[in-house]
Amino acid sequence: MPLRWVPAVAIGRAVRIAARLRKPGGGSAVPGLVVNRLAPGFLGSVLFSFPEGLAVVSGSAGKSTTTKMLVAVLEAHGKRVFTNPSTANISQGLTSALLERARLTGRIDADVAVLEMDEGHGALLSDRFRSRVVLLTNVMTDQIDRFHDSEKVLGMLRRIAATATERLVLNGDDGLLARIRSDVPVRRFGVTDGVLAASPRGLGYAETVRPPEADGAVVTAVAGASAAVLLDGRQHQVRLPARGVHYAVDAAGALTAAEEMLGDAFDAETAVAAISAMPAVFGRGEVVTVRGVQVEFVLVQNPASFQLNVDELEEGLDQVLVAMGSDVRDPSYFWPVDASRIGRALVVTGSKAEEIALQLIYQGVQVVRIEPDLPAAIDHFLSLPAPARGVKTIVFTADAMRRTRAHLGLTS
Amino acid sequence: MTAAILTLFPEVTDVNGDAQNALVLARRAEWAGEDAVVVPAPLWAVPDVQPAAIVLGSSVDSALPRIRDGLLALLPRLTAWLDAGVPLLAIGTGMELLGSRIDLGNGSVVEGIGLLPGSASPLAVRVTDDLVVDAAEGRLIGYENHARGFRLDAGVPALGRVVTGVGDGRGVDGVRHGSMIGTRLHGPVLAKNPAFADALLARVFGRPVVPVSDQAKAADAAAAAIRARLLKGLPSR
């Protein structure tokens, strides 16, 4: 039935054009909303149409990086890959992204699809699609406002896991993921005891376990932005898109899922080279030059990533700006994060500036200035003389990141 | 003598940062020139200390039976501390577990340890928003995120009257009973309400505690700004 989706796709495109005319650069979710209403089967049908199938990546943290790594590996093996931009991981956004690429028949010219799915929306969609491989990164105690507790998140991930028809790829060190029972074979990735022991606060999972056997890729050592990964009995050196154990774990997950997706065509050397060639991850440890000044951007998406990123900061940085935006309705749940390593925050900004400043002060961080107005704070921070140690470092939440980039004229 | 601020079972009661109120008490004591330290008390591994104050935070529902069992095991010591007038701040499900029972609303009930004369039962809807309570310590501000009210036995005083939000659902929030204080104001309620923290510290040290350091000034200025924004447009008490 190649013509079945023609009206829906045509209408979706018309809506997209109309939305862009009204608000240049915006309105990206609206076409998906319209098509989902007109043709609720469209999404599942298109997702089912890729000749080499669909891989879905979900979990609390690391989805975006893992998805990008998996895409890079598949492309390095000559595959044409459809993937969703990380901001479009809700059903409307996903449908809109599919519309962008779909021919009028509702087919997309790609061999394989890799989709990042938010755990909540992925669970809601789970009865509408099937995937070959599902990769689950971890369950962290995050997004309390949305999901209330980690066990609820686990329930959502169970539903996403149930869409797998071939293989479930799990972070074997995550104790909550270990409780998922699967109808398809499971492969686990993870870290060695030594790597775990070298992470003073652990890996940030709601529950960490030592798996009986990790038969997927295993991180055996991490030094800065370089990691050693054991895969199929061979050690590989991987250059990470930023320093930190969590990026090494993301790489291990992506390598394991890529092997499952590619089967005999998988070549470990090609895969490792593809990940090592990736540019620094946007907004996490990304170093940019603005107004002639080098600045490192550190994105904090939840308490676990806040802790991991703070622990990765160079000690004794003398120019740090911390920005918390309106995406955090109630910052209470960040308080278990020990941010004392920041030491001194020259500027604290964003609509939740006072709340995060309060936490920093009680944790022994010297807060020099609180300036809730973000553009003014950024301007002030960038105008300060060059730091004595390290680079100017901006730690921000997602909303503050978007506003910072917009203010500095940086395109995403 | 160093005042030990005991935080009960922080590995399961810090979901919203409630356990960090112990840090707030210890820091404010230091800032006032007193000697205080946070003592974490994990489940089944409560250290042998004489606490000067106790904090019990909120948990996820699935952890309630475990925490209750931990409290029951601690009951003789807990009762002795409370009889000696040691202040205890209980937040959310911490308060609920100190009461007689928690009706989970799905047909199951978790028995409490019966130190507080009240019981918890479901509200019509989950509450996730700002909460403002007028209490003896002043107008308390913060955030609530819960799905149950706490009904007090006749004659038992609440912590205060709800100005904005839901609290325990009948126009009041929390409880005062002996040296125990319970509330739905979750997270770092003592950091956001320094007067509330200092009132507790005055009971700990038996004299007024006045934090005076530069950090105290910075912290209280930040708390005042949060308060001003939240209270803007509300009638004064």
Tell me what the CATH architecture of the largest domain in chain A is.
3-Layer(aba) Sandwich
CATH fold-level assignment of the largest domain in chain A = UDP-N-acetylmuramoyl-L-alanine:D-glutamate ligase
Shape of chain A: globular
Biggest interface, which chains?
A: A-B, 25 and 30 residues
| Euclidean distance between termini CA atoms of chain A | 38 Å
Structural class of chain A: alpha/beta
CATH superfamily of the largest domain in chain A: Mur-like, catalytic domain
Number of strands of chain A: 15
Low-confidence sequence ranges of chain B: none
Tell me about the largest β-sheet of chain A.
9 strands, mixed
The percentage of residues in β strands of chain A lies in 15-25%
Mean pLDDT of chain A: 84
Helix content of chain A: 25-40%
Write the layout of secondary structure elements.
The complex is a heterodimer of chains A (412) and B (237).
Chain A: H1 6-22, H2 30-38, H3 42-47, E1 54-58, H4 63-76, E2 81-83, H5 91-101, E3 112-116, H6 119-125, E4 131-136, H7 144-147, H8 150-161, E5 164-171, E6 186-191, H9 193-197, E7 218-223, E8 226-231, E9 234-239, H10 245-262, H11 268-276, E10 284-290, E11 293-299, H12 303-312, E12 320-323, E13 344-349, H13 353-362, E14 366-371, H14 374-383, E15 392-396, H15 398-408
Parallel strand pairs in A: 1-3, 1-4, 2-3, 4-5, 5-6, 6-7, 11-15, 12-13, 12-15, 13-14
Antiparallel strand pairs in A: 7-8, 8-9, 10-11
Chain B: E1 3-8, H1 10-13, H2 21-31, E2 36-41, E3 53-56, H3 64-83, E4 88-91, H4 93-98, E5 101-103, E6 109-111, E7 118-135, E8 138-152, E9 160-164, E10 172-173, E11 175-177, E12 180-183, H5 189-192, H6 194-205, H7 214-231
Parallel strand pairs in B: 1-2, 1-3, 3-4, 4-12
Antiparallel strand pairs in B: 5-6, 7-8, 7-9, 9-10, 11-12
Helix pairs in contact in B: 2-6
